[in-house]
Automatic annotation (TrEMBL), chain A:
One of its GO terms (biological process) is spore germination. This is Spore germination protein (Amino acid permease). NCBIfam families: 2A0309 (TIGR00912). InterPro entries: Spore_GerAB (IPR004761). It is a multi-pass membrane protein. Its main location: membrane. Keywords: Germination, Membrane, Transmembrane, Transmembrane helix, Transport. The keyword Cell cycle does not apply. The chain crosses the membrane at residues 12-32, 44-65, 85-106, 112-137, 144-167, 219-242, 271-292, 304-322, 334-354. The keyword Transport applies.
UniProtKB/TrEMBL annotation, chain B:
GO terms for cellular component: membrane. The keyword Membrane applies. This is Spore germination protein. The keyword Transcription does not apply. It comes from the Bacteria. Belongs to the GerABKA family. The lineage of its organism: Bacteria, Bacillati, Bacillota, Bacilli, Bacillales.
Length: 370, 491
């Protein structure tokens, strides 16, 4: 039976909705439109939808794996299946992925901040603020992170109202002709929309912290569906507002879209978006930092506080090293590949392996018992 | 003598006799048999003369034993004992000791303390005033306070338990709760925490509430302390625990949530539409008060692009001659307001009013004319100060005033991002806090929509018939709403 940790530390299953959805929405939401039109062009929303649906399968696979984890999370499972050394190495790889996740979110956001708000401020100064905020939240424990995820979903949702402004100028004919692309082109678009959905993998570590684990399955699916619907709305509004050629030359379509808004007391509405994106990237950064700390705690005898600082320091150093104009694109493709391998290759294989091992053990137990 | 050996009555009386207000005498001069000992500053001298001494002298010839004295004097709290362990603490509370013969170990101890002496008589709510509703507040006397509470909640379910805290003050501390409603877990936690306290003199309940609070390193008050009787009575009926201490006009209740500090009893006395409106105004004004100055600093330092053209012009006009950067300008004005408030709080009312005029009008006008600040910032800072005073609970109002300073600094360093980060640091802090183990941000997080009828708004009494579920009361039903009035009219 899957193990659960002390009940006072667990969170209600419905909060999984905010945790997963909050972690999925991140920096990629600012620029995914100009990437995923490569291939399916005005039909890219269909690829988005398909990726969203495939994520439900990933959630299903994660639950199928976690059912067999005696220690409750993926870290124990790795050791249980592959022994101390190989399991430890896999956990370390996972730690690398968490670091990559933090760095990707913060570094990409810093680029936006740099261009929009602080062209002269050194980047490490901006990065420091984000990391320190995250450290303060993560040292509060999972309950605080969950709370932050909740507010970081509720507050940006209010901004959704502002798509009213671009819709006034929408050319719905931009979406036509419908479905005139080859499967290969759809696949290409789908590949570029993958990183929008990364965040469900944290379920692998969150699992033992959830009350009534079986009931939580519903909320994980709701979270993924919520993300899919949200991205579809943004994608369709963007496609209706820009034409494909325009989009190809726009780096952050969501921000350009927000510029349309005109209010009597605020002139450049995009600034609200830029700073609001701090709210959007906070859950993924906090969640990845928490997950990284969990992984290190398994491997070392240290307490969690120094490990949070260690993870923070590592991220800071990596971000400080990553300079140069092509960094964002490279990071983007590295993250996309890493997530693709983790979610669509490794997890299905792991699921298969877990079930084979389980069946073998059951048979042996049956033989020994009989 | 060993330090832990029990003191004899003689030791105690000798120790006490070092004080000049300690008196020992015999009521009859010729025969020194009966000795009376007490602190003259603590007892009611009139009662001693009129009843105690007079009665003893009248029955003098009949008195053979201590019991004879006990029978003839008209005091309830009198007992004959040989136990000297509690004599010392009783003596300093205004008890009188009567001995019939110096060599006899038994003695009579009578409570004749003067309860009202030195206490103010007026019990108007001075700091938590309300236009509508009762104006009775607590005073420094715990018996009066408990009496006031019992008048409001007149059922035997109201249980009041007593503990004594303070190694030097021996202060009477009382815990009040509604039996069968308040969750026993809260009562137990409160009793346990109060029982563990080792402190010298308890001057006020706010000392206790700091000692037992769940997080000591937080600017936020985790228990709600109030001087209003109606507020405490309402908290107790909602399933909270109230703590009284002798000598303190403030009573604190817990577990409290962040939102509790922004509710005013008037919300319940005014019609629900108006009550709700003022409640929303109060909550918005807190947000305004914390964030408006930092936003000014951030926008003027880094993001002037967001200011619309028609506002930009007057803003530039008022700031042309200001030599300071916005962050220093804002800090200067905020500190000035803090000075005015702090000075005003320490001065007598009449001088305080003068100070308000001098500070508010003269200094304000002069700083703008001297071009130390822009007039727009002056308006903003004055408004935000005004907004911070709408918070009904003084302790929370102080916290709100403090919060803007780190936010102004963050805004000065990181602009809009600093404000957002500051907001989330604040949120992260609030999410950590707990009051008696109950999350502080309830009912927002963890989300409990069941009692939204009485949180950000107050709905009509027909709909708020239940107690807050997050306090986990044993009985959640408050009352049954009366029949629909329209039906009555149709009949």
């Amino acid at each position: 039976m899957p193990r659960q940790i002390k009940e006072s530390l667990t969170v209600s299953p419905y909060l999984l909705w905010f945790m997963i959805h909050g972690t999925q929405t991140g920096i990629a939401m600012l620029n995914f439109q100009s990437r995923n039109i490569k291939g399916a062009q005005q039909d890219s929303w269909l690829s988005l939808l398909l990726v969203g649906l495939s994520l439900h399968a990933v959630v299903w696979i994660i639950y199928a794996i976690m059912k067999h984890a005696d220690g409750g999370d993926i870290l124990h499972l790795h050791r249980q299946l592959f022994g101390k050394w190989l399991g430890g190495a896999l956990n370390l790889l996972l730690y690398g992925y968490m670091l990559l996740f933090i760095v990707y979110q913060i570094r990409s956001y810093m680029e936006v901040i740099h261009i929009w708000a602080f062209p002269t401020t050194p980047l490490w100064f901006v990065c420091l603020l984000i990391l320190l905020t995250a450290v303060y939240i993560v040292t509060g424990g999972l309950r605080v992170i969950t709370g932050i995820c909740f507010f970081c979903v509720v507050i940006p949702t209010l901004l959704l109202v502002s798509i009213y402004f671009p819709i006034q100028y929408a050319h719905w004919t931009n979406l036509l002709p419908l479905l005139n692309h080859t499967p290969r082109e759809y696949a290409q678009s789908a590949f570029h929309s993958l990183n929008l959905f990364y965040g469900v993998e944290f379920l692998l570590l969150l699992y033992p912290f959830i009350k009534h684990q079986e009931k939580s399955r519903k909320w994980a699916h709701i979270a993924v569906a919520h993300s899919t619907v949200l991205y579809l709305i943004v994608a369709i509004v963007t496609l209706a507002f820009f034409n494909v050629q325009q989009l190809e030359h726009t780096i952050w379509p969501t921000l350009i879209l927000s510029k349309v808004a005109r209010l009597p007391f605020i002139d450049r509405f995009d600034y609200v978006y830029v700073f609001n994106w701090f709210v959007v990237i906070l859950p993924p950064v906090c969640m990845a930092m928490w997950a990284g700390t969990r992984i290190l705690r398994q491997a070392t005898p240290l307490r969690s506080k120094p490990l949070v600082w260690f993870t923070c320091g590592m991220s800071f150093v990596i971000i400080a090293v990553l300079q140069g104009p092509k960094t964002i694109d490279k990071l983007d493709s590295v993250v996309t590949w890493a997530g693709l391998v983790l979610l669509y290759v490794y997890l299905p294989l792991l699921c298969l392996w877990v079930h084979i091992v389980q069946r073998y053990q059951n048979r042996r137990a049956a033989v020994e018992g009989g | 003598m060993k330090p832990d050996a029990p003191k004899t009555l003689r030791d105690i009386l000798e120790q006490a006799a070092k004080s000049s207000d300690f008196r020992q005498f015999s009521p009859s001069a010729e025969d020194g048999r009966i000795r009376i000992s007490y602190y003259s500053s603590l007892v009611d001298a009139e009662k001693i003369n009129r009843y105690l001494i007079a009665e003893i002298q009248q029955h003098f010839d009949d008195i053979r034993r201590l019991a004879d004295i006990q029978n003839c004097i008209p005091f309830d709290e009198a007992e004959i004992t040989e136990d000297t362990s509690e004599v010392e603490s009783k003596l300093v509370k205004g008890y009188v000791i009567l001995q019939i013969a110096p060599e006899e170990p038994a003695f009579l101890i009578v409570n004749i303390n003067h309860t009202e002496r030195g206490h103010r008589q007026s019990n108007e709510t001075e700091n938590e005033f309300s236009v509508v509703g009762p104006k009775i507040g607590f005073v420094e006397n715990i018996h009066v306070n408990v009496h006031l509470l019992r008048q409001q909640i007149a059922v035997t379910k109201l249980v009041i338990e007593e503990v004594s805290i303070g190694s030097l003050s021996n202060t009477k501390v009382m815990i009040a709760y509604l039996d069968g409603v308040t969750n026993p877990q809260h009562i137990e936690t409160m009793k346990q925490r109060l029982g563990k306290i080792d402190f010298e003199v308890v001057f006020d309940t706010s000392i206790l509430d700091q000692i037992i609070s769940d997080h000591t390193n937080s600017p936020f008050p985790l228990f709600l302390s109030t001087e209003r009787v109606d507020r405490v009575a309402y908290a107790i009926t909602s399933g909270q625990v109230a703590v009284f201490a002798d000598g303190s006009p403030y009573v604190f209740t817990g577990p409290s949530t962040f939102l509790d500090f922004f509710l005013s009893p008037e919300d319940y006395y005014l019609p629900w539409v108006i009550g709700s409106f003022f409640r929303i105004v109060r909550i918005l004004s807190v947000i305004f008060s914390i964030f408006v100055t930092p936003v000014y600093v951030a926008v003027l330092t880094y993001h002037f692009e967001v200011i619309p053209e028609n506002i930009l012009e007057p803003l530039i006009m008022s700031r042309t001659h200001v030599p300071l950067p916005p962050v220093l300008e804002a800090l200067f004005l905020e500190v000035t307001i803090e000075l005015l408030r702090e000075a005003g709080a320490r001065l007598p009312t009449k001088i305080g009013q003068t100070l308000g005029i001098v500070g508010g009008i003269v200094i304000g006008q002069a700083t703008v004319e001297a071009a130390l600040t822009s007039s727009i910032l002056l308006i903003i800072v004055a408004l935000s100060a005004l907004a911070s005073f709408t918070t009904p609970i003084f302790k929370m109002a102080n916290t709100i005033r403090l919060l803007r300073f780190p936010l102004i600094l963050l805004a000065g360093l990181w602009g809009g991002m600093g404000i957002v980060a500051g907001f989330f640091l604040l949120l992260g802090h609030l999410l950590r806090l707990k009051s008696l183990g109950i999350p502080y941000l309830l009912p927002l997080f963890p989300l409990r929509t069941g009692n939204f009828g009485d949180s950000f708004v107050r709905r009509s009494y027909r709909y708020i018939t239940n107690r807050n579920i997050y306090l986990r009361p044993l009985d959640s039903k408050r009352y049954t709403p009366s029949e629909d009035k329209e039906d009555i009219e149709h009949e």
